[in-house]
Amino acid sequence: MINGYIDHTILKPTTTLEDIKKLCMECVEYDFAAACVPPPYVKVAKQFLGATNTKVATVIGFPFGYSAIEAKVAETVLAIVDGADELDVVINISAIKNNDWEYLEKEIANLMYIVREKKKVIKVIIESGILLEEEIIKCCQLYSKYGVDFVKTSTGYAEKGATVEAVKLMRANLPENIQIKASGGIRTFAFATELIAAGATRIGASASVQIVKEGGEDTAHSDY
């Protein structure tokens, strides 16, 4: 069932409390893997979801990734205090383009220390649509070394989102224990299933309900 792959997502800057409530209720109804919400809404999303199976995910350094390491550390700590289960962290894309892998290593080392201590899930967003193939491969090598939980394709804010080719390249260059989250421009059941076939184990989407309905999967819980 595709619903179990989906992080039901709302990250637009105009997001309201009512939007978060609706998203969380849909997560409960369709049993999505996670609700991915802006950092200020983590605490309330946790309340709305209660004891359901759906995890609360939020974003760090979003959407451009160039905030200081100290800022990302502070965001991560606050998100965990507020109740986040999963952290989708935008890495410093500028550092990749400057070929500054030492900076990126320092960044992930600082974040992994906190995430592992608190036993949370970390997904690193590499923005694959604006990277060269060799940059994607280098990212896979670096984040494999630090044992992240997921490498994620995109924020949805770059000019190019998830592609089947990027997911295949990532899968070929990551160990089996590191999963892939595809996100950015996934609006149909057909595209979502293509990405899963290529190796994605999580799909980030705002069109999640539409994707499930297109697949003809009656996953809604009748008791909600």
From TrEMBL:
One of its GO terms (cellular component) is cytoplasm. It comes from Chitinophaga eiseniae. Pathway: Carbohydrate degradation; 2-deoxy-D-ribose 1-phosphate degradation; D-glyceraldehyde 3-phosphate and acetaldehyde from 2-deoxy-alpha-D-ribose 1-phosphate: step 2/2. It is found in: Cytoplasm. The active site is at 88 (proton donor/acceptor), 152 (schiff-base intermediate with acetaldehyde), 181 (proton donor/acceptor). Keywords: Cytoplasm, Lyase, Schiff base. Belongs to the DeoC/FbaB aldolase family. DeoC type 1 subfamily. Catalyzes a reversible aldol reaction between acetaldehyde and D-glyceraldehyde 3-phosphate to generate 2-deoxy-D-ribose 5-phosphate. Its EC number is 4.1.2.4. This is Deoxyribose-phosphate aldolase. The gene is deoC. Its main location: cytoplasm. Pfam families: DeoC. It comes from the Bacteria. SUPFAM superfamilies: Aldolase. It catalyses: 2-deoxy-D-ribose 5-phosphate = D-glyceraldehyde 3-phosphate + acetaldehyde. It is an enzyme of class 4 (lyase). GO terms for molecular function: deoxyribose-phosphate aldolase activity. One of its GO terms (biological process) is deoxyribonucleotide catabolic process.
